[in-house]
Amino acid sequence: MTGLLCTCRQGFEPELAGELTQRAAEAGCAGYARTQRNDGYVVFACDDIGLAAALPWRGLVFARQKLALVAELRDLDPADRIAPMLAALAGAPRLGDVWVEHPDTDAAKPLAGLARSFGNALRPALRKAGLLTPKEDARLPRLHVLFVEGTHALLGIAQPADAAPWPLGIPRLRLMPDAPSRSALKLEEAFLALLAPSERETLLHPGMTAADLGAAPGGWTWVLTRQQLHVTSIDNGPLRQHVLDTGLVTHLRADGFRWQPAQPLDWMVCDMVEQPRRVAERMATWLREGWCRHTVFNLKLPMKKRWDETVLCLEILREQAGGLRTLRAKQLYHDREEITVFATKGPR
Known about the structure:
By secondary structure, the protein is an alpha/beta fold.
């Protein structure tokens, strides 16, 4: 088989399938998506070798991980699962690492033990066959073995520069004891998933200015202060006192949808519960008017037609913000019925 293997949040397989189908068609790559609800992954079958380059991982909204599909192996013999995998990998490029995983679903969680133990057996076999380097090499392609069942696995290859750098596509973040809310993890993950390492270095500097719309109780403001940004937090509700005590925060009791800064800011973030189109329009106004250069915000998706709503909201941003340099969106691990958007405008 050829095509893509992408993982996603359980229950969002139709959205990912719709996204892959539309994006592939726009790129001129004919193919079809195959999945079932709650599988936690989508296979997009396509013979076009340019598909992977046409659909970069950071540009996909609902894909946690993106892999070039190598093979789907069914009816594996539990006594020897390795031999069919070695046969399927004949002619594959030299590999720098191997990750054995399972979909992030309720049904697949019992496979975690198999994934751990099988990885320990597969690595020496791959090295003996000359397919895996003696030591981990992050510069080379990485093999992923995705166990769907004990006798059913999919093999995919990740290019490190065009794939999530975390197993299952999930960054392992720990909620700090002084974080005002769990929502802090969403902004931390957004900076990791939506910004490349070089962008984090150039776009997040101590001393920069930011606004947090709908800030209470202060989770996203707290994340910004940890980057040593000066934050104006907009919310009629209270912020945690230790966030205010950083000396980096000005709390204004105002409506986040009406407030605007007196001077341009470097950043604006927003996690307000509002209709996604209204949020997209307000974020576009901030960018168009030059009130901020960079923004991260969430769009709360409807229960139905979530991919269609995503397309519409992103188009609103492109049309109304005017001359965006960057526009990316992801459904993060710490998101639920929402996606997180990063947009930037103007010189870096």
